Amino acid sequence: MNDFVVTISDEKRTVTVLNEDTVEFDGNKHPVKLSKINNHVYLLKIGNKVYEITTDKLDKDKFGFLINGHYFETTVRTKLSEKAAEYLKNKRLESHQDNISAPMPGLLLKLMKKVGDKVEQGESVAVLEAMKMENDLRSPASGIIKEILVAEGASVEKNQVIINIE
Fold first, then answer.
1. Residue 74: CB partners within 8 Å, gap ≥ 6?
2. CA neighbor of 145 nearest in space, from 114, 120, 123, 121
3. Helix count (H) and strand count (E) of the chain?
4. In what order do the strands lie in the sheet with 143-148?
5. Check whether domain 2-94 has CATH 3.10.20.90, yes or no
6. Number of neighbours of residue 163 by Cβ within 10 angstroms
């Protein structure tokens, strides 16, 4: 028995694969038959209805589906990986970082943003040269650049704050 959490448009549903011929969702058991046409196209029979499904893996656990002419994206995770993802999301919200610090001593080569610019979590904001390598510094949070404390071309020490995000 395998339990999966399927998320479509922020709505989560649990799908349990009971065996190769039966799945359970919304508290109901459904007979299924899945036939692979090629690496991306399947025929899925649920009860008496047949669906042609074209799939594409977009990310680690994100998929795009075209089912009978309707496209949607979904996230599919095991129950355990869903709990881990929720935990990490909540942890990130609790420890909202609002600055970018140098992970090691080096030279600040380039700033990609200026004060007042909007920045998204994970977006590249600066390049730090350390030990003859360029290191991409990414934003730990979404927000607006409140302050830039180090100019391009300046040396920085480990853990020195470079940018404040509001």
1. 6, 7, 8, 62, 63, 65
2. 114
3. 1, 16
4. 99-101, 161-165, 143-148, 118-119
5. no
6. 22
d(CA 157, CA 142): 24
* Digit-coded pLDDT (tens) for 14-44: 999 999 899 998 889 999 999 999 999 999 9
**Where do you find CATH 2.40.50.100 in the chain?**
99-165
105, 117, 130, 161 from 147: Cα distances, Å:
20, 10, 23, 10
CATH class given for the domain over 99-165:
mainly beta
Q: CA–CA separation, 114 vs 40, rounded Å?
A: 44
For residues 14 and 79, the answer to whether their CB atoms sit within 8 Å is yes
pLDDT in tens, 138-147: 988 888 899 9
Residues 55-107: tens digit of each pLDDT: 999 988 899 999 988 999 999 999 888 888 888 777 666 555 588 899 999 99
